[in-house]
Fold:
Amino acid sequence: MFTPRLFKFLTYTGLLAAIVLLMASGCSSGNHNEAQKPDVDPPAKANPVAEVPVADDTDSVEPVLASAKASIKPVQARPVVLIYNFHLTNRCSSCIAIEEETGKTLENYFAVEMKQGRIVRKILNVDDKANKKIAEKYEAFGSGVFVTRVFQGKESTTDLTGTGFKFARNKPERYREILKNQIEEYLK
Amino acid sequence: MKKALIFIALTTFSFNSFAQQQDHDTIISNNPANLKVQVLYFHITNRCGTCRGIEANVRKTIETWFSMELDSGIVELHILNCELPENKQKAEKYEAYGATLALTVYKDGVELNTYDITDWAFQKAHNPDLFIAELKAKIEAYIR
Structure:
């Protein structure tokens, strides 16, 4: 009944069937992995929320968030304006006028910002050794008035010395106007 | 004793005259038809060292580098006290109510532009070599 030819046929057919089954099983397994991907938890780094301890209710979340916020280095939210009046020990009338008119400008227009600390003014004698470093930074070898904006670690300075000498004594309203505009610009 | 008193009086007189001469107005204008650059420096009566230093630097620049142009009228030098009544009109024109350095450019006898370089002057006043070199370059640019 089982001729060698029939035996050969059955053997090949069986082998073929086994190969087909194996391949089908492999494909099915691959599809299963892909389908599971969305269910896999993403790495912790990709989702910082995962690092915050899970809380049961809103009230208990607050302190956690507050502590997280506190750990972040604060960024300077608004610019600070520094005003330096440099002078020598022996002063001329223009130099004195610059200092006086600078004071009037700050009192009249920027009293609030001065109180808030958003404007800081310093009157410094360049002949005093204690002021040597800051005088060198501004290249102030005699009388000078400088307005500096400090914001997020960066500084920009406007030298109003020439303007001061030109206007402060005999046209003070003009000096005050220029200084006011410069400060307003730097407070933005 | 008498001689000593006379000597002191003469010395004091000569020093006072010298000091006053320093602040006399200076106007050097040799041939307005040739004028290309007018160098104007205004100051007040009571002056500080920086203000005097700027004047000295300006004078030295002109004397050293532009004596020929000054003689021919291409460059003019005006050093004026802005608080004197006779200079009031000119001071107002240049808004020179205190120490002010300006360069006015002329062409064919017509005034073209004025460049106020007061801020620059105060920044460079304490470095005479740099002041003179940069002022020289500024003037040269306008007389070409």
User: Anything to note?
Assistant: Residues 105 and 180 of chain A are 7 Å apart (CA to CA). Chain A is about 55% helix and 15% strand.
